[in-house]
């Protein structure tokens, strides 16, 4: 995806976000909405400015430069990024149900295996060590809560 | 003031605080040595660990970590040709050639010595300038505080790397997000969308863990790791000789002052200072042709400047409540976690904590020097930890850290949302630091605006009724104007007019 397109999408999302917030201000008193409305106005102006700036930069850029940039972007593994984000989301939602001690080692080993970062044996050792280390650090040493309860 | 200095010194010399400084510096040194992990991210992830510590101890640990990470970044820069932190980017230029010539130990020693001098000078600057500026800031009423908040957000936004418009947009969105929750003036709910957890507002701690750590973890896996040009060990002596100290002395002092001033300006940090220091050293050097080929002055210039940023960046943070860098924004967040509001009262009401922090920063330089001599060889091993191994570990620390704040899963979900937002912002070149600053300054802006308008009976002219707020708002307006295309056109036309005349 071209950078200008990405910025156009970001500008639209920002404006939608600002409009949603603006609608919410109708439920508030004048004192409460005064500053937010000013900020919303500035956000809309800056979002438009961001899009215009990207268009102006794209026009100035030489065609071979943008081709080179596209080539560089191709090196990014977006499939890997999507799976990693989904794994994080799954980790967060399942830790609430299954608890820290079950989900954390599975997450670590799963990611290591998917990314081919380590061999299974090393992955299991690191996962076990790190899970216990975090538990000891947070619970035993710093007396901070971790999502440990199962069900 | 001298009483506070004495109290701070007494506090910092307790066993607990000294241990926190030693541990913080060591953590910083090792985390800084890992390429791909920034000092900011390390502080964000470790912030939850300080929740149950006394405020002075927790803050001392975070500040020491920041200092240690600045030196740690040079280890990877020198040995594997990849800066451990963005602030060590310029160190690569001469550090790695020195390592290739078999002088890796010397390069690390020069880096350590320059870091010590830079850090010490900036700590002294903090110790002397902060109380004076803090005294001035104490006279500030709501009108001046409003102007300070406006200036903070406009400067950090407009000086952000890349596009100033994106920096400003990020900052203003942060300000708007800070409006979520109960309005402190009217007591009514704003932008809560019926979600009960949002009544207490968006936790900036959660936001900064997400914004600074999740995108970094994703970046670590999105590309294939390049083979690192590794130098596994060094046998030469680290400590510089007297002749070498003489050779780099002026450069180190110049770069230290550059670092301090760069740090004071909000929005600029170690990554700017290292290049600024390096370029100035090259400009003034008699042997400028040797720069880039393994000159000790090049290493010293960059490293003195990036460590000097630490103290400099804490000056506006502690006195005005405007963070000088992303890392100090997190330290500011840490203050707020402990119920301490950053701003002018830090130097009086919370003087014991503030002066302990300042002394801790000074002492962390000595800890960094000694630990650097002892642990640099051990830190070489962490430069080889693959990025793919670090990524899930960062995620777990983020999740557990976000949960630990309020024992709440809502915070974890918010952290993930901010993390993904930060990643997409990174993809379009929008900086995340202004958003965090906006979240921090939002309430100060809101309260000071309403108090000022109440004083003036609703007239906005009150902000131009006294010289301090007028000057601050004019500077803010200039910083916004220089971000617009009109400023470039104006400069062009002025230049053209001057050349004609």
Tell me the major beta sheet of chain B. Answer: 2 strands, antiparallel
Helix share of residues of chain A?
over 70%
Count the domains of chain B.
1
The chain-level mean pLDDT of chain B equals 87
- Bin the strand percentage of chain B: under 5%
- Overall mean pLDDT of chain A stands at 87
The Cα radius of gyration of chain A reads 23 Å
Return residue spans of chain A where pLDDT drops below 50 for at least 5 consecutive residues. Answer: none
Distance between the termini of chain B: 54 Å
**Gross geometry of chain A:** flat
Using the alpha-carbon principal axes, give the shape of chain B.
globular
List the helices and strands and how they pair.
The complex is a heterodimer of chains A (151) and B (501).
Chain A: H1 3-24, H2 30-60, H3 63-73, H4 78-98, H5 100-115, H6 120-141
Chain B: H1 2-12, H2 15-33, H3 39-46, H4 55-80, H5 91-100, H6 104-137, H7 142-158, H8 164-178, E1 181-182, E2 189-190, H9 204-222, H10 242-264, H11 270-284, H12 296-319, H13 326-337, H14 351-382, H15 387-406, H16 409-427, H17 433-456, H18 467-481, H19 485-500
Antiparallel strand pairs in B: 1-2
Short structural summary:
The complex is a heterodimer of chains A (151) and B (501). With 151 residues, chain A is mainly α.
Report what the structure shows.
The complex is a heterodimer of chains A (151) and B (501). Chain A has six helices and no strands. By secondary structure, chain A is an all-alpha fold. Chain A folds into two domains: 3-73; 78-141. The longest helix of chain A is centred in the first third of the chain and has 31 residues, at 30-60. Chain A is flat, with a radius of gyration of 23 Å. In chain A, 26% of the residues are buried. Chain B is mainly α and 501 residues long. Chain B has one domain. In chain B, 72% of the residues lie in helices and 1% in strands. Chain B has helices spanning 2-12, 15-33, 39-46, 55-80, 91-100, 104-137, 142-158, 164-178, 204-222, 242-264, 270-284, 296-319, 326-337, 351-382, 387-406, 409-427, 433-456, 467-481, 485-500; strands spanning 181-182, 189-190. In chain B, strand 1 and strand 2 form a beta hairpin. The longest helix of chain B has 34 residues, at 104-137.
């Amino acid at each position: 995806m071209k950078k200008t397109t990405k910025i156009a999408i970001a500008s639209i999302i920002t404006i939608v976000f600002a409009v949603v917030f603006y609608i919410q201000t109708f439920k508030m008193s004048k004192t409460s909405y005064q500053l937010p409305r000013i900020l919303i106005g500035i956000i809309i102006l800056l979002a438009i400015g961001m899009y215009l700036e990207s268009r102006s930069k794209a026009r100035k850029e030489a065609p071979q430069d943008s081709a080179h940039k596209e080539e560089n972007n191709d090196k990014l593994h977006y499939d890997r990024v999507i799976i990693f984000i989904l794994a994080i989301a799954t980790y967060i939602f399942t830790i609430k149900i299954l608890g820290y001690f079950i989900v954390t080692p599975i997450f670590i080993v799963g990611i290591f295996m998917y990314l081919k970062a380590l061999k299974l044996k090393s992955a299991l050792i690191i996962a076990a060590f790190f899970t216990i280390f975090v538990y000891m650090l947070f619970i035993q040493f710093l007396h901070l809560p971790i999502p440990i309860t199962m069900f | 003031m001298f009483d506070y200095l004495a109290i701070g010194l007494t506090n910092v010399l307790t066993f607990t605080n000294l241990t926190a400084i030693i541990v913080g510096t060591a953590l910083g040194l090792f985390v800084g040595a890992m390429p791909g992990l920034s000092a900011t991210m390390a502080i964000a992830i470790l912030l939850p660990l300080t929740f149950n510590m006394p405020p002075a101890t927790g803050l001392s640990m975070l500040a020491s970590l920041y200092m240690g990470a600045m030196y740690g970044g040079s280890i990877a820069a020198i040995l594997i040709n990849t800066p451990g932190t963005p602030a060590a980017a310029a160190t690569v230029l001469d550090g790695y050639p020195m390592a290739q010539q078999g002088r890796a130990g010397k390069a690390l020693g020069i880096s350590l010595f320059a870091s010590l001098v830079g850090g010490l000078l900036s700590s002294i600057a903090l110790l002397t300038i902060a109380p004076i500026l803090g005294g001035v800031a104490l006279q500030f009423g709501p009108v001046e505080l409003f102007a300070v908040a406006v200036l903070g957000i406009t400067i950090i936004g407009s000086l952000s790397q890349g596009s100033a418009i994106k920096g400003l947009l990020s900052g203003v969105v942060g300000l708007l997000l800070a409006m979520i929750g109960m309005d402190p003036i009217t007591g009514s709910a704003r932008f809560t969308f019926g979600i009960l957890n949002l009544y207490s507002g968006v936790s900036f701690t959660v936001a900064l863990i997400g914004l600074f750590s999740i995108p970094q973890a994703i970046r670590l896996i999105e590309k294939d790791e390049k083979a690192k040009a590794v130098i596994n060990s060094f046998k030469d002596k680290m400590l510089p000789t007297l002749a070498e100290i003489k050779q780099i002395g002026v450069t180190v002092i110049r770069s230290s002052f550059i670092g301090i001033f760069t740090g004071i300006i909000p929005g600029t940090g170690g990554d700017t200072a290292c290049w600024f220091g390096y370029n100035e050293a090259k400009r003034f050097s008699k042997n400028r042709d040797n720069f880039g080929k393994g000159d000790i002055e090049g290493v010293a210039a960059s490293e003195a400047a990036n460590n000097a940023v630490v103290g400099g960046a804490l000056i506006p943070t502690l006195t005005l409540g405007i963070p000088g860098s992303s890392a100090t924004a997190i330290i500011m967040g840490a203050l707020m976690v402990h119920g301490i509001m950053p701003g002018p009262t830090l130097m009086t009401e919370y003087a014991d904590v503030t002066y302990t922090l300042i002394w801790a920063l000074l002492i962390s330089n000595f800890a960094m020097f000694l630990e650097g001599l002892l642990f640099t060889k051990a830190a070489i091993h962490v430069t080889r930890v693959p990025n793919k191994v670090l990524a899930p570990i960062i995620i777990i620390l983020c999740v557990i850290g976000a949960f630990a704040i309020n024992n709440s899963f809502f915070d974890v979900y918010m952290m993930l949302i901010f993390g993904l937002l930060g990643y997409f912002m990174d993809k379009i070149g929008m900086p995340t630091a202004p958003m965090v600053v906006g979240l921090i300054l939002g309430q100060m802006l809101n309260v000071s605006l309403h108090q000022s308008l109440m004083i003036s009976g609703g007239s906005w002219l009150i902000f131009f009724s006294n010289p301090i707020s007028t000057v601050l708002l004019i500077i803010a307006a200039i910083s916004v104007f220089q971000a617009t295309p009109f400023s470039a056109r104006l400069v062009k036309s002025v230049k053209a007019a001057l050349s004609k005349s």
